[in-house]
Specification:
- The protein is mostly helical.
- It is built from 7 helices and no strands.
- The chain is rod-shaped and about 85 Å long.
Length: about 130
Amino acid sequence: MYYGTAMAGGAMLLDWFEVQFLTRRYPIEIYVVVLCFLFTGLGVWLGHRLTRRRSCTSTGVNSAALNYLGISRREQEVLALLAEGRSNQEIADALFVSVNTVKTHLQSLYQKLDVARRGQAVEKARSLKLVG
């Protein structure tokens, strides 16, 4: 919507410049400079709008739900790796723990999330925004 409005304004401005040019009020160099500034400004504005990044302070994780369910920091790490689709061995390697420890954390997570399988745990964690 903004881009369309800017383009319509630019078209009106070009028509005004054409009338001024036809009456020979301004030399051609002024038109070129004004058009360069307008399109440069439009490009900078549009580039800023399209590439704006979100603030890094918010992780998008529902900390209230994590606290309510009693999910520990380590269980949250296991859950995040589980959501990435990693196996028990890959999770154990990433966290520098044994596979049995990962299985224990997973059983605890299944109980806290009231699910029976990995897929259900990931689905529920995403719906509750427990993983970023």
